[in-house]
Amino acid sequence: MGSKNKLRRFRENETFSNVFQPTRDELVNSNFNLKGNWQHEVFKNKNPLVLELGCGKGEYSVALAKKYPNKNFIGIDIKGARFWRGAKTAIEENIPNVAFLRTQIELIDHAFATDEVDEIWITFPDPQIKYKRTKHRMTNATFLNRYKTILKPEGVVNLKTDSEFMHGYTLGLLHGAGHEVLYANHNVYKQEGSPEEVTSIQTFYESQYLEQNKPITYIRFKIK
């Protein structure tokens, strides 16, 4: 993507009513006024709040919002030029129950209050295979603790990935730490009974993986 194109998208994001871009200082110093107020201030309802972490272009967030109009969705990514597409689509198609937040995932507990979130989706994260990158894996113990803080007691996390490594790493960590695995599948498109919301929505890259016969894995779990 050219730098001019990026700048244009950044400028356009600033005009979108469904895009929120707090500074790091705002979040860390607890000056972010939407923390604890997303339902009331942004969505104007009390519907369940669902996050997609590392949302990329926002395809999954937008598709979930269309499929579940009685839930509120927030796609989160540090790269605003990417989720510009999802934000623009939501405005063009008048999808009121999806918004986008530009921030780093490690600041997630500064952007949302305790027990504010009902559900989290992590879709096709970078598996960070090298050992020295363990701290960046989005399902490591540190990240799970952050998610637990903002999730309601019965809140769930969904991990959908094409990485067998990420799938295996996460399952091992969940079982080892005593978390509750509600569902796990090594190939959701080949096994009957896979959750419909997992197989009915596909990102652009996911479609490419499927064309290459690459298995898509899925885990649904609760953090204890």
Automatic annotation (TrEMBL):
Keywords: Methyltransferase, S-adenosyl-L-methionine, Transferase, tRNA processing. It catalyses: guanosine(46) in tRNA + S-adenosyl-L-methionine = N(7)-methylguanosine(46) in tRNA + S-adenosyl-L-homocysteine. It comes from the Bacteria. Substrate binds at K130, D162, T203, F204, Y205, E206. SUPFAM superfamilies: S-adenosyl-L-methionine-dependent methyltransferases (SSF53335). Pathway: tRNA modification; N(7)-methylguanine-tRNA biosynthesis. S-adenosyl-L-methionine binds at E52, D77, D126. CDD domains: AdoMet_MTases. Its EC number is 2.1.1.33. PROSITE patterns: SAM_MT_TRMB. Pfam families: Methyltransf_4 (PF02390). Catalyzes the formation of N(7)-methylguanine at position 46 (m7G46) in tRNA. Belongs to the class I-like SAM-binding methyltransferase superfamily. TrmB family. PANTHER family: 3-DEOXY-D-MANNO-OCTULOSONIC-ACID TRANSFERASE/TRNA GUANINE-N 7 - -METHYLTRANSFERASE (PTHR23417), PENTACOTRIPEPTIDE-REPEAT REGION OF PRORP DOMAIN-CONTAINING PROTEIN (PTHR23417:SF14). This is tRNA (guanine-N(7)-)-methyltransferase. It comes from Algibacter aquimarinus. The lineage of its organism: Bacteria, Pseudomonadati, Bacteroidota, Flavobacteriia, Flavobacteriales. The gene is trmB.
